[in-house]
Amino acid sequence: MSELLSPPADGAGIRLTQTQKDLIGGSVGGIAQVLVGQPFDIVKVRIQTAPPGTYASPLDCATKLLKADGPLGFYKGTLTPLLGIGACVSIQFGALEGTKRFFAGRAKGRELNLGELWMSGAFAGVANTVVANPVEHIRIRLQTQPAVTPRLYNGPLDCAAKLYKQGGGLKGVFKGQVPTMWRDGVGYGCYFMAYEALVQRHLRTTGLSREEVSPLWAVTYGAAAGYALWFSIYPVDVIKSKLQTDSLDPAKRIYKGMIDCTRQTWRTQGLKGFLGGLAPTLIRSPFANGATFVAFELAMRAMN
């Protein structure tokens, strides 16, 4: 439904469709997520992809990063996710809200059930991988390149160009697409299901409308949703990160694919190999995901 935003004196105004509002709100949420979560994310990625024994703990990783690159080192590779994750979260919320409206039309006034909420989130997750996977691949390459001169990549565009050239075209840029689809399909199904179910329960027990829910509750429910996301798919995220830091040269490649990476990780590191970087992820999650949802909800209220 179109609504009038900030009408000038002559009565003219900017009309946005509900889908456009969803996309804009998602972009705002995505930018908030990156700014809050990036320092934690770079620590997570370095622990996930470093040889065993490189870091004694997340704190040790953060300390070494600070010593080598200074405070700005925690924001290495931020430009790509700032632009890309904004687009990704925009796609997520646009696909989520559209799918929710589809199920709501079939529900005939009842609340959406957990299965419908999960499928809405899963569709949103898979839809966003077209942008999310190359953005994360570029970000991970930038985050993990050594602090030496000359650098392997001189920024996101140079990295993308080299991934395309050295990786055999688009498949080099989209390396890790399959595990990303598994991760985001399952993970965002759980993520959005948890958030929406908590919001539904809140509305049901308080009698409030969605616009009346306190931002504090949006942060709280967003934090819970973040834990639902990562506890459901963290090992797949580790495999994705390992594949996206592997050599682009087939002759030097460590892993043949997702299954081979899983086998090698289990054989060499056991269960511990699938949990590297989990601590900074769980510390980051409530802040980044809480910021995502409260930014989205406030942006939607402003537009409405």
Automatic annotation (TrEMBL):
GO terms for molecular function: L-ornithine transmembrane transporter activity. Belongs to the mitochondrial carrier (TC 2.A.29) family. It is found in: Mitochondrion membrane. Solcar repeats lie at residues 17-102, 112-201, 213-302. It is a multi-pass membrane protein. It comes from the Eukaryota. Keywords: Membrane, Mitochondrion, Repeat, Transmembrane, Transmembrane helix, Transport. It holds the Pfam family Mito_carr. One of its GO terms (biological process) is mitochondrial L-ornithine transmembrane transport. This is Solute carrier family 25 (Mitochondrial carnitine/acylcarnitine transporter), member 20/29. GO terms for cellular component: mitochondrial membrane. Signal peptide: none annotated. Gene3D superfamilies: Mitochondrial carrier domain. InterPro entries: MCP_dom_sf (IPR023395), MCP_transmembrane (IPR018108), Mitochondrial_Carrier (IPR050567).
